[in-house]
Design brief:
The termini are far apart. Helix content is 46%, strand content 13%. A hairpin with a 4-residue loop joins strand 5 and strand 6 (164-165). It has a 7-stranded mixed beta sheet, sandwiched between helices. Helix 2 crosses helix 12 (302-311) and helix 5 crosses helix 11 (277-295). The protein is globular and about 65 Å long. It is of the alpha/beta class. The structure holds pyridoxal-5'-phosphate (PLP). Pyridoxal-5'-phosphate is lined by residues 36, 105-107, 138, 186, 191, 219, 221, 252, 254, 260, 265. One of its GO terms (biological process) is aspartate biosynthetic process. Belongs to the class-I pyridoxal-phosphate-dependent aminotransferase family. It is an enzyme of class 2 (transferase).
Length: 410
C-alpha cells in the first residue's frame, strides 16, 4: 500500500542531518555551529544552576505524582507565563483578556495557534486568510503552517547588502497585504538572521498593521536570551498589546531555561479591549481546549513544573535572571571577539554585522560554497545559508574558526 510513488523517501531534516555529520567527524578540531542550543565555554550542554535548584525542590516534594495535567496544563505555570510575557501589571491580564494553554514547547504553541486560525479565522477578504512569514524564517515554520493548510507568503526581512533589516521591504509588503492578513513576527532574536527591528521600527510596523487590521502572531523563542533582559526582549509584544491589538503568542522555554527536550511552552491568545473581550476569551479558550485534547490530550508535566517553581519564587527568579545574563553575556562576548579577530586579520568584507546582530544566531554572509569548504576542509559545521550558532564558539575554538573563515573568504 505504501509503494515509493505513494510514499517517496523524504529528505532528512537539514539541521538534524548536520548534527549527525558532525558526530561522525573524528577530527579533533571539529566545531559545531549548527544546532540552536546553548553550549558553555567547553562546548558542553549547560544545565542552568536555577534549573538544578528547582529540580532538587521537586525531588523533595512528597505531593508530586505522575497524574495527568489538566488539558490547558499546569495553572501555576500558565498564569506565571502570562505575567512573564505581558508584564505583571498588564491591563490585558487584569481585564481577563488573556487565555493561555500550556503547549509542547514553542513548536506546539505555534501549531495550536495555526490550527485554531485554520478552523476559525474568518477575515472579510478571503485571500487574507494567509500567514506572512519573514524571508528567511525558522525553517520549521514552512512545514508547520503547510501541515495545517494555512496558506503562506513571505515578507522581505534581510538585506544582503547591509546584512541588516530590509525595513522598507518588510513594511511595504505588510502594507500591501490584503486587509486582515496574519503576520508572523519573531518577538526578539530573529532566527536565522539575528536581526531585530529597533523600537522605532516596531512602532511603525504596528502602525501599518493597525491601519490594515492585520492579525499579529508572535513567535517568542528567545525571551531573555537576546539582550539578557526579560522585559526588553518582550518589548515588541507589549507595544502591540498596548496598541490594542488582538493577537497570539507562542512562548518557548527551550532556550531561556535550557529545557529543550522537556518541551515546556505556552500559547496565549490576547483579546482586544472591548466589552465582549471576557466572553470572547472564554469562547476561544473552549475551542482551543478541544483542539488540544484531540492533538496531545494534555501537555507534558516535568518541564512546566521546573519552570513554574522558578517563575513563582522571587529568589529563584532572580537566580534565573543571573543565569540568563551568563548565557547572553557569553554570546555577546563571542560576537565581540569574532568581529575583532576577523577585522585584525583584515579578512575581506565587513564584519560589523557580527556584533550588530543579536541572540543565538548570526547570519555571517558566507555563501554555500564557502560553507561547504569550511565543513569539508576545516571540519566546521554550519547550516547552508551561512548561519552560525554563536553558542558553539568558545575560548578554545574561536581562533581556529576565525582563521578558517579568513582562509575560505580570501
Ligand atoms: N521558533 C523559533 C524562531 C525557533 O528558533 C524555535 C527553536 O529553535 C522555536 C520556535 C521552537 O522551539 P521549541 O519547540 O523547541 O520550543
Amino acid at each position: 500500500a505504501f509503494s515509493a510513488d505513494v510514499v517517496p523517501q523524504a529528505p532528512e531534516d537539514p539541521l538534524f542531518g548536520l548534527m549527525a555529520a558532525f558526530k561522525k567527524d573524528s577530527d579533533a578540531k571539529k566545531v559545531d555551529l549548527g544546532i540552536g542550543a546553548y553550549r558553555d565555554d567547553n562546548a558542553k550542554p549547560w544545565v542552568l544552576p536555577v534549573v538544578k535548584q528547582a529540580e532538587e525542590l521537586l525531588r523533595k516534594d512528597p505531593d508530586l505524582n505522575h497524574e495527568y495535567l489538566p488539558i490547558a496544563g499546569l495553572a501555576d505555570f500558565t498564569s506565571a507565563s502570562q505575567k512573564l510575557i505581558l508584564g505583571k501589571s498588564s491591563p490585558a491580564i487584569t481585564d481577563k483578556r488573556v487565555v493561555s494553554l500550556q503547549s509542547v514547547s514553542g513548536t506546539g504553541a505555534l501549531h495550536l495557534g495555526a490550527l485554531f486560525l485554520t478552523r476559525f479565522y474568518n477575515p472579510a477578504a478571503a485571500d487574507a486568510k494567509t500567514i506572512y512569514v519573514s524571508t528567511p524564517t525558522w525553517a520549521n515554520h514552512n512545514q508547520l503552517f503547510s501541515n495545517v493548510k494555512l496558506p503562506m507568503k513571505g515578507y522581505p526581512y534581510f538585506s544582503k547588502e547591509t546584512k541588516g533589516l530590509d525595513f522598507d521591504g518588510m513594511v511595504s509588503t505588510i502594507e500591501s497585504a490584503p486587509e486582515g492578513s496574519i503576520i508572523l513576527l519573531h518577538a526578539c532574536a530573529h532566527n536565522p538572521t539575528g536581526v531585530d527591528p529597533t523600537q522605532e521600527q516596531w512602532t511603525k510596523v504596528a502602525q501599518v498593521m493597525k491601519a490594515k487590521r492585520h492579525f499579529p502572531f508572535f513567535d517568542c523563542a528567545y525571551q531573555g536570551f537576546a539582550s539578557g533582559s526579560l522585559e526588553q526582549d518582550a518589548w515588541a509584544i507589549n507595544h502591540f498589546v498596548e496598541q490594542g491589538f488582538e493577537l497570539m503568542i507562542a512562548q518557548s522555554y527551550a532556550k531561556n531555561f535550557g529545557l529543550y527536550g522537556e518541551r515546556a511552552g505556552c500559547f496565549h491568545f490576547v483579546a482586544a479591549p472591548s466589552s465582549d473581550a471576557v466572553d470572547e476569551v472564554s469562547r476561544v479558550g473552549s475551542q482551543l481546549a478541544i483542539l488540544q485534547r484531540s492533538e496531545i490530550s494534555n501537555p507534558p508535566a516535568y518541564g512546566a513544573r521546573v519552570a513554574s517553581r522558578v517563575l513563582n519564587d522571587e529568589k529563584l527568579f532572580a537566580q534565573w535572571e543571573e543565569d540568563l545574563r551568563t548565557m547572553s553575556g557569553r554570546i555577546i562576548e563571542m560576537r565581540k571577539q569574532l568581529r575583532s579577530k576577523l577585522e585584525a586579520k583584515k579578512t575581506p568584507g565587513t564584519w560589523n554585522h557580527i556584533t550588530d546582530q543579536i541572540g543565538m544566531f548570526s547570519f555571517t554572509g558566507l555563501n554555500e560554497q564557502q560553507v561547504q569548504t569550511l565543513r569539508e576542509e576545516y571540519h566546521v559545521y554550519m547550516t547552508k545559508n551561512g548561519r552560525i550558532s554563536m553558542a558553539g564558539l568558545n575560548s578554545h575554538n574561536i581562533d581556529y574558526f576565525a582563521e578558517s573563515v579568513d582562509k575560505v573568504v580570501r
